[in-house]
Design goal:
heterodimer, A: mainly alpha, B: alpha+beta, 7-stranded mixed beta sheet, 5-stranded antiparallel beta sheet, 23 strands
């Protein structure tokens, strides 16, 4: 009749160990929700910042903006090629 | 076993079965309905729009992108000083005080939208620390180059359901691709049914919009737009438009029209400006049409460049009408090359009559006149050609010099792609690549629509058009050192059954370098006032743009 008592004791032991494990794990992860929430908020903030910076980059690298800046600092348009025709003879032999 | 025991057992079994059946009904058959009912008590499904795809120019610059915007909303019950809030928000939201004040007076609402603002304005409002004012982050369309290529891009507005929808141009044509597919998220409510904005579940069923890469060259677009605007102003014209195409592929390098609009603030402009006149306005092409008719006759071996015109000594009488040249100058026995150089209407009457109605209709059809070009822009129109039995002798004669027939500028540009591209007419295209949300790239290949003339005819016609540039009315504007093929056009505008000689549509079509064309361009100036002629208005604009394109492509002079 000792066998059932060993089984019962083992089962109670397992239940106790698992309960303690659950308490430990629950205690540990109970605060990770806050951490996860903060990471999520941070990710969202970085995404927003990224989009805002992207908007700034696109505005600054637009030709419209570059052209207005160039005009402000006095850049002039590229001169067209000068075409040199064949030189005229100095004298034509009759 | 006594009967009483059996009866109780049977009763219990029946009860168990009944409970099992009822549980099955609620938990399996009605499960979804109950779940939805429960869900509706703490939240509701909200539509989450997909991020709209980006439109890029051929240098991968996003010419239409997305940016962060904030929807300003108010909870009128929480607002303590309505007048103060109205005074502070009115200038920032660019709305009159009365409409803001009216929104804030809706005390039976939890949530009243006030307007959309950018991040800077949001920060400005936040500094006021106003109770009852909140922000919801959204995305809105952003055009970094402002109004550049507005007619080509179109804009994003709202449809009848309040969702974003592309209208006109690329935004309209590729709307379904760019828009993607919206998803759903569960929005949690508080006990009073007020939405808790931060508490929404993950979005499901969302497919982000695809992006597009265009053939549009940002630098050429900028050049064309600036020169066209300057030209329209200089010549006192009502409007103007230009498109530049790579004739070998049909890819559109630039397309611009003035007056224009800003797609980001399209609501501030008159609705008539939204349409792209290059594909929606019909006009009589005038003399720019002559090379098309001439090349059809050359291709049919009915004439040669040195064929002499036997009817060009004076006005030609056709069907009771006397047809004159534009300047009433006549050249006896003029050659076909000179007919194009002098833009001689009587010479073109001779060519059209030589061609005959059947061949003329076949040629027009092969050049794409009377058909839409198939360009990937929303709103293209066409004017179908008259049935054969409705053509009179004078119609055939005037079609020879581009009168009595209406076309869109895109049809003209596309028809000339055949002359510039060894006789092959290409399908005009703006988008060259689609990039799906998962990065898959699908290229859009160039497409030959037809071959109206042979390569040999195209070469001959090119030579004639080079002569027209070097010796014609627009020779003062030509680029020295370069072989450019081109033709001027001055078409009178039909008003109440007659042509108004003071109001014209001046145009110039051409391509260069003539021996290996890198661009094909059509400039149209609507009702110029400083001069009515294409040679004195559209041609200078054409060559001004051509000069910068040749510089941009680093093409050296050849002559």
């Amino acid at each position: 009749m000792r066998k059932p008592s060993i089984i019962i004791a083992s089962l109670i032991g397992i239940i106790l160990v698992l309960s303690i494990a659950q308490i430990v794990v629950s205690t540990r992860i109970s605060t990770t929700g806050i951490a996860l929430g903060s990471i999520e908020t941070q990710t969202q903030a970085l995404k927003t910042e990224n989009l805002l910076l992207n908007e700034k980059i696109l505005t600054l690298s637009s030709l419209t903006h570059i052209a207005s800046q160039a005009a402000q600092i006095g850049f002039t348009t590229k001169t067209a090629q000068i075409v040199l025709s064949n030189s005229q003879p100095i004298a034509i032999k009759q | 076993m006594s009967w009483r025991y059996r009866t109780v057992l049977l009763f219990l079994l029946v009860s168990l079965l009944a409970i099992t059946a009822r549980l099955f009904y609620w938990q399996v058959v009605k499960a979804q309905e109950l779940s939805d009912l429960g869900q509706s008590q703490y939240g509701s499904l909200i539509k989450v729009p997909a991020t709209r795809g980006v439109i890029k120019t051929n240098d991968n610059f996003p010419i239409a992108a997305n940016k962060i915007a904030y929807l300003v909303f108010a909870n009128p019950k929480e607002i303590k000083n309505k007048n103060e809030v109205t005074t502070l928000l009115s200038p920032i939201l660019e709305q009159d005080s009365a409409s803001i004040s009216a929104s804030l007076s809706l005390k039976d609402r939890f949530w009243v939208p006030l307007g959309q603002i950018d991040a800077q304005k949001k920060d400005q409002i936040k500094t006021f620390n106003l109770a009852g004012i909140g922000f919801e982050q959204q995305q809105t369309r952003f055009y970094p180059e402002a109004s550049m290529a507005a007619h080509l891009l179109g804009f994003v507005g709202k449809n009848q359901n309040g969702d974003d929808q592309g209208y006109f141009g690329i935004e309209g044509y590729y709307d379904r691709l760019l828009r993607g597919k919206g998803g759903y998220a569960l929005q949690i409510h508080d006990a009073f049914g007020k939405p808790i904005l931060a508490k929404a579940s993950e979005t499901v069923g969302q497919v982000e919009g695809s992006s597009l890469v265009l053939s549009v060259d940002r630098s050429i677009q900028y050049i064309a737009e600036k020169k066209l605007t300057d030209g329209v102003e200089k010549f006192g014209a009502r409007a103007g438009m230009v498109a530049i195409m790579d004739p070998k592929t049909g890819n559109i390098l630039a397309l611009s029209a003035v007056p224009s609009f800003d797609p980001a603030t399209y609501q501030k402009y008159d609705g008539s400006l939204y349409k792209n006149p290059f594909i929606t306005n019909l006009y009589e092409p005038g003399s720019t049409f002559k090379p098309l008719v001439m090349s059809a006759a050359l291709d049919a071996h009915l004439i040669k460049p040195d064929t002499k015109c036997p009817v060009c000594a004076g006005p030609v009488s056709v069907g009771g009408y006397d047809l004159h040249t534009w300047n009433d100058k006549y050249y006896k026995d003029t050659t076909m090359t000179d007919v194009i150089i002098h833009s001689d209407n009587t010479g073109m009457v001779f060519v059209a009559e030589k061609l005959g109605l059947d061949r003329m209709l076949e040629a027009l059809s092969k050049f794409g006149i009377g058909q839409t070009t198939g360009i990937d822009l929303q709103g293209e129109v066409t004017n179908q050609l008259k049935p054969k039995d409705q053509w009179y002798a004078v119609d055939l004669a005037t079609t020879g010099f581009g009168q009595g027939i209406s076309v869109t500028a895109m049809q003209m540009l596309d028809a000339f792609s055949a002359i510039a591209n060894e006789g092959k007419r290409m399908e005009p295209h703006v988008a060259t690549k689609v990039i799906t949300a998962n990065g898959e790239e699908v290229s859009i290949a160039p497409k030959v629509l037809d071959q109206p003339i042979s390569a040999a005819t195209a070469k001959v016609m090119t030579e004639i058009m080079v002569n027209a540039v070097n010796k014609g009315e627009a020779q003062f504007a030509r680029l020295k050192g370069y072989r450019i093929a081109g033709k001027t056009g001055t078409a009178s505008i039909p008003v109440a059954g007659h042509y108004d000689p003071t109001k014209t549509i001046a145009s110039f079509v051409g391509f260069g370098p003539a021996d290996d064309p890198k661009f094909l361009m059509l400039v149209v100036i609507d009702r110029p006032t400083s001069s009515i002629y294409g040679a004195e208005t559209a041609a200078p604009v054409f060559f001004d743009i051509a000069k910068d394109i040749l510089n941009y492509y680093n093409i050296p002079p050849t002559e």
